[in-house]
Specification:
Blueprint: H1 2-14, H2 18-23, H3 66-70, E1 88-91, E2 98-102, E3 118-120, H4 126-147, H5 153-164, E4 179-182, H6 194-203, H7 207-213, E5 218-220, H8 229-247, E6 252-257, H9 260-271, E7 277-283, H10 291-298, H11 305-318, H12 323-332, H13 338-357, H14 361-364, H15 372-380, H16 386-413, E8 416-423, H17 451-454, E9 459-460, H18 469-474, E10 486-487, E11 497-501, H19 512-523, E12 540-542, H20 547-565, H21 573-590, H22 597-613, H23 628-652
Parallel strand pairs: 1-5, 1-6, 6-7, 7-8, 8-11, 11-12
Antiparallel strand pairs: 2-3, 2-4, 9-10
């Protein structure tokens, strides 16, 4: 029951951060479409496990790599590397930069577990929020229910939402209220500890790139997600100069993942003339905000009668397996008068806005440029916000200039810029509660960012639909996607933009075909656009998920084989042959350049089967047959509550019970 209450309260709070919370949480849909992207070339994909046990080490440092072997004579002040591979910098997404909470004296603040509080993404504590909600809301809610008038409920909701984000609250000049320190990595992976590398590989699988260009040429640029992207871009420029000095190269390559593209947008505005960047790959990148986030700032929600009192809550709570609770909630929210309900919802949004959203410059980078002027006037027109408005205006100008800046970098400075996108999903495909935003109905996205942003100018029909017949007739070209939902000819970079059908935001890092495309773009000098190798890397590809193979199954199988070869593990001749065949099939799946879930599933199951058979892994427990009596009554309860919800909607209408009188 506690979990159901937790989910319900979390859903209510997340209404205020409809899109932001969906970015913040880890693998599960609303607990954050974590922005994990990949950089693994096909020829090394099988080596891309997320441990460091396979890396060559000297004194604990990952030095014995291709580039390191060629640069042993590198002088302290740089010098010519001559390895042929530029150093590689990752600018990660919203959840992948860790930030430490410090006190006023710079000492670590301890979290609930007694350890220093360090977290990526949103620094919220779910239990803390629930405790605060119960403490703040219980009495005002009771009085409001008794009198059917707002008795402090909206004020309590505002304060609770505001408190939820206290660790990342921002001042009116756009600076953090708390003492926050980004966990930075100002040296290459070769100089990081195993623990650090393991942590970063979990965020963004990079072993394929590391194995090709060398651990000593791979860097990670962390940043504060509530910071000023223009200032962060200046920090990036300093970081690039440091990388150049450490490696002896005069240019770098950059991977921008999701929110990381906002830093690149700001960098291109300020430093396009420097010519320090040769290759850029934007993966599921925020190149022009997200329509979902724009709806949040505009408070552009679908609060129609049907959505508010019938459809939304069952869809929102279905993500946690509580659709039945959604129908019950439809009955319970009517205990509040409609206006009190709407005012409470607005108070939650305003609390989140005043705590973190209004004055965090990098969050404004998530708003499409077409919507920025109206939103800035709405939230930042008061003179007290002049300082933060200057920061957000500066980034808005960078958004307006991004197309020209990119083309300048390409045509005048010799840069190669590529975009990799997922598409054909609505925002609500990952989290049902996102159905409340008005842009969801016609969205075509990876579940987090609409493809018009990640694809920078692509023309798209709503997910699951085709472009109009007259449009297709007038634009018959190879740039039309096979599903006829996209026209890539309108992209800023039509020959350097790739699309993966039904690939969600997080899946970019799990899809071997996507990872291998990214790796090819960075490491193959002859692979420059969609025409370079269309048979292997077509412009329009497919989503798939092979993470379990890469991260768990293949490393386990390789370890089992190594133990056998060392005489430490017995395997029969028949099983040995099958183990080797399963390993080969797994490696082939990770070398895929065309997304195919059936191929990944077959390799996954074969590896699982042989690992269990040889005793290296325990067999999974047999699937529990659901109790037919419990299933019957659970289904009956859901049907009864749905019928009650529909009946009350038909008889009471879109209002609270007391609104009838």
């Amino acid at each position: 029951m506690k979990q159901k209450v937790r989910r319900t309260l979390s859903a209510a709070l997340a209404l205020a951060l409809v899109f932001a919370v969906s970015l913040s949480t880890g693998p599960a849909a609303l607990r954050g479409a974590k922005t994990v992207v990949a950089a693994a070339a096909a020829r090394t994909a099988a080596a891309d496990s997320e441990t460091v046990s396979g890396a060559s080490q000297t004194g604990g440092k990952h030095e014995d790599t291709a580039c390191a072997r060629e640069t042993k004579g590198l002088t302290a002040d740089g010098g010519a590397c001559g390895c042929g591979n530029n150093p590689f910098i990752v600018i990660p997404g919203i959840t992948d930069s860790d930030v430490a909470l410090l006190d006023a004296q710079g000492n670590p603040v301890l979290g609930p577990d007694g350890k220093p509080y360090v977290k990526g993404g949103f620094m919220v504590d779910e239990d803390e929020i629930i405790d605060a909600a119960l403490k703040n809301l219980a009495w005002p809610l009771a009085k409001t229910l008794l009198t059917q008038k707002d008795q402090g409920l909206t004020d309590a909701a505002y304060e609770t939402a505001k408190y939820a984000f206290w660790r990342q609250a921002t001042n009116k000049d756009g600076t953090p209220v708390q003492n926050l320190q980004v966990v930075r990595y100002e040296k290459s992976f070769a100089e990081l500890t195993d623990e650090q590398i393991n942590h970063l590989f979990v965020n963004i699988p990079l072993r394929g790139i590391c194995d090709i260009i060398g651990y000593d040429h791979v860097y990670y640029f962390a940043f504060n997600i509530i910071g000023d992207p223009m200032e962060t871009a200046r920090e990036l420029d300093a970081f690039i100069q440091m990388v150049k000095a450490q490696t002896g190269h005069d240019k770098v390559n950059i991977l921008n993942a999701s929110l990381g593209a906002s830093i690149f947008t700001a960098y291109a505005e300020q430093f396009k003339d420097k010519g320090d960047v040769e290759k850029v790959v934007n993966v599921v990148a925020l190149l022009n905000g997200s329509d979902a986030f724009g709806d949040l700032y505009a408070a552009d929600f679908n609060l129609s009668d049907e959505a508010l009192y019938r459809d939304f809550l069952p869809e929102a709570l279905a993500d946690g397996g509580s659709k039945t609770m959604g129908y019950l909630a439809n009955l319970l929210i009517r205990l509040l008068p409609r206006q009190v309900l709407l005012d409470t919802f607005g108070a939650v949004l305003n609390g989140a806005m005043d705590s973190i959203l209004r004055c965090a410059p990098n969050f404004w980078a998530m708003i499409p440029k077409e919507e920025y002027p109206a939103m800035a006037d709405k939230w930042l027109s008061d003179p007290q916000y002049a300082a933060v408005r200057a920061k957000t205006d500066a980034f808005y100008q960078a958004q307006l200039n991004l197309k020209d800046n990119m083309l300048y970098m390409i045509n005048e400075k010799g840069a190669q810029i590529n975009n990799v996108c997922g598409y054909n999903l609505k925002f609500s495909s990952l989290a049902g509660m996102l159905s409340i935003i008005n842009s969801d109905k016609n969205s075509n996205s990876d579940g987090v960012i609409n493809v018009q942003s990640t694809g920078l100018g692509v023309t798209a029909a709503p997910a699951g639909q085709q472009l109009p017949a007259d449009y297709l007739a007038a634009h018959d070209s190879p740039y039309i996607s096979p599903d006829k939902g996209l026209d890539a000819s309108t992209c800023v970079l039509p020959d350097n933009t790739w699309f993966f059908y039904n690939q969600d935001h997080e899946q970019a890092g799990k899809n071997a075909a996507c990872m291998n495309l990214v790796g090819e773009l960075f490491t193959n000098p002859y692979f420059t656009d969609i025409h370079s190798d269309p048979a292997r890397f077509p412009q329009f590809n497919y989503g798939s998920d092979s993470k379990e193979i890469r991260r768990y199954l293949l490393p386990d199988a390789q370890k089992a084989l190594a133990l056998y070869q060392a005489g430490e593990f017995d395997i029969s001749a028949e099983d040995l042959a099958e183990l080797k065949a399963a390993i080969a099939q797994g490696e082939d799946a990770l070398k895929a350049t065309i997304g195919d879930q059936a191929v990944a599933d077959a390799a996954t199951q074969r590896l699982k089967n042989i690992l269990v058979k040889i005793g290296y892994r325990e067999a999974p427990p047999p699937a529990m047959e659901p109790d037919p009596v419990k299933v019957f009554f659970a289904n009956l309860l859901e049907q009864l509550l749905k019928a009650a919800s529909d009946y009350v909607y038909d008889t009471v209408g879109a209002r609270g019970y007391s609104d009838r009188f």
